[in-house]
Amino acid sequence: MKAIVVKPGEKGATLKDVELKETVGENEVKLRTLRVGICGTDRGIVTGKLSFARPPEGADYLVLGHEGLARAEEVGQNVDLKEGDLVVPVVRRGCSKCLNCKIGRQDFCETGEFIEAGIRGMQGFMREEFVDDAKYLVKVPRDLGELAVLAEPLSNVMKAYNELVFVQKRSVWNCDDSTFGCRKATIIGSGPIGQFFAMVFKDNGFKVTVVNRRDPNQIEDKISRVVGYSFVNTSKGLDDVPESDVIVDTSGYPSAFIPLLRKMKRNGVLLLFGTVGGEKAEITSDLITFFVEYNISVIGSVNASKLDFEQGMTFLSVWKSRYNGVLQDMITKVVKPEETQDAILEKEKGSIKTVIEWSK
Ligand SMILES: [Zn+2]
């Protein structure tokens, strides 16, 4: 079958014929790949910047792709899915040693011996078909269709949001009408992850501001109006950034979030989500004093559980009708498998999410 393949130590990704012998066990499903999203992790692997990327044991190549959407074609006898059902596969598979992995929370694996589809130690979803264990498959609601290709990036945002709410139980954080309506969240970065954070916070009652070092492009401007958040260009100054209870960084650049910390309210949270910015930053005693005196929590968050995928799927269904056309607008480009490398390497102005169409 055709697959997008990367080799360790080599840059670039190629469309190749590969032979992967996979049979369908009683708890497994054979899947036809429909769409696979491209993200910064794929870009990091293809450009050789992500050193932890590796093929499965014994293989000399890695099939790329972790934002999958597929259709069930052959279903094992113990599986509660039907032929034709759409599913999204979970990315990370646990170590089977630590307690978190044993209860399906491999996103909190303690040994670090997990594998991740299309990233480290497991073949990914940029291929015509694959077989997977049903316990790692999330069923797509019937009304959502191919927009479910957005479920994987959203699942990571759901997990981070759930962590934040859990950590904030350290004090009373709800407002005097029981909601989060008095709380403000500022999101750094307006890519797909930034947009999803904005929507999740907005739908949980927060007042939301998205910041970038430029003005919004046409699509971002439309999304901000439909969803109902403010967009601030921080290259023009920070005056329009409100005092915030939560600051989420999706950029990975300390120079983007450190200056914003003076907008942080007491008992606030800095949620770090971006990586590989490649910058160095200085931590001063003043900054430490601020974190201490203001009870600031810092949360780093990666990956997501199947529960987070399911929650994300529900949000996508709601947004499909509530934010008319916005999810469709976020998929700014659909490419063929043979265009994958170019699509991964180019970062077109105004693009939000590029997906590869493998099958209809
Ligand atoms: Zn583990």
UniProtKB/TrEMBL annotation:
It catalyses: D-glucose + NADP(+) = D-glucono-1,5-lactone + NADPH + H(+); D-glucose + NAD(+) = D-glucono-1,5-lactone + NADH + H(+). Its cofactor is Zn(2+). GO terms for molecular function: D-glucose binding; glucose 1-dehydrogenase (NAD+) activity; glucose 1-dehydrogenase (NADP+) activity; NAD+ binding; NADP+ binding; zinc ion binding. Keywords: Carbohydrate metabolism, Metal-binding, NAD, NADP, Nucleotide-binding, Oxidoreductase, Zinc. Substrate binds at T41, E116, E152, N156, N303. It is an enzyme of class 1 (oxidoreductase). It comes from the Archaea. Its EC number is 1.1.1.47. Catalyzes the NAD(P)(+)-dependent oxidation of D-glucose to D-gluconate via gluconolactone. Can utilize both NAD(+) and NADP(+) as electron acceptor. Is involved in the degradation of glucose through a non-phosphorylative variant of the Entner-Doudoroff pathway. This is Glucose 1-dehydrogenase. It comes from Sulfuracidifex tepidarius. The gene is gdh.
